Amino acid sequence: MSNKAHNFSAGPGILPASVLQQAAEACINFDNLNLSLLEISHRSKNFEAVMDESRVLVKELLGLGDGWNVMFLGGGASLQFAMVPYNLLRTGGTAAYVNTGVWASKAIKEAKLIGNTNVIASSEADKFTYVPKGYTIPTDADYLHITSNNTIYGTQMPSFPETNIPIVCDMSSDIFSRRVDGNKFTLIYAGAQKNMGPAGATMVAVREDALGKTDRKMLSMLDYRVHIKGESMYNTPPVFPIYVSMLTLRWLKENGGVDWIEKVNNEKAATLYNEIDRNSLFTGTVTVKEDRSKMNATFVMTKPELEPEFDKLWKAAGISGLRGHRDVGGYRASLYNALPLESVQVLVDAMQEFEKKFA
Hints:
The protein is α/β, with parallel strands linked by helices. The chain has helices spanning 17-28, 45-62, 76-88, 102-114, 224-229, 239-254, 257-278, 307-316, 341-358; strands at residues 6-7, 68-73, 94-99, 116-122, 143-147, 149-150, 155-156, 167-170, 187-191, 202-207, 282-284, 296-301, 319-320, 331-334.
């Protein structure tokens, strides 16, 4: 795969080459069964082993202790915007939300359909260019919902709030990228398609003692307890995305785990942000540097009329997926775990070459 493009896509994102190779082989012959992974029963011992290892790896890499359950579900993180309040927000209770971007806004919208929802902090008025701080967390809320990383606007929580109420965190775009104390949270969810696997699976980790406190009559498919009891197989799970997620988590562990990848990610982010700050033709979009995402670096040109020329240059360098989200424009370089430092250097070289030509 030496001719593979330098993939800066925000998601579905880049996966390790070895994982793609193993996944491709499993699509032809899985576990020497002479059957494709796409054909086998999800209730076979072979796939049950995949599910079991996936859950164990999640708990190990997040440092989760006893009392935690891990599920792999369908519906994407967007379904969790509804499932979280459906399972945790009591009738007459209130949920607290911090609004840091598009996905947090969508989570708030769904929660308001379930019950009382209080947005206690927001950076929306400033186009989500920073992460709110210094806000008061209500002590009587059923939970606090936060989004750790914001792919569209390029912000990331440098640290997490301190509170005695349950914390729910959407970690879709930076899970397993840095060391976090998973036990600070009550529920963590993440779509697979950034740092784990292909689109189609969502990981949910929840403390079991947080469940069963609402008095609403629960629909089975939306009840975490049903999925926990069914070991993520209440209905047919997304077999292939779960298998690829297992391979990716195994790859992460074998290479040194979260401590290893955090150092790699810090180096990648520093390499790119140093060039953004140095280069006269580019500027970052996040107004508070400590809030800059190490997963999604967003930047714009100081001379927007030169964008077509820069687009030609980076595409010629074998770079893919660099354009910013349609809502904000500019550029976005996603630096997910599997992206090598070499790819970041190719982008930096392209930016330097562009400056020499047009500055």
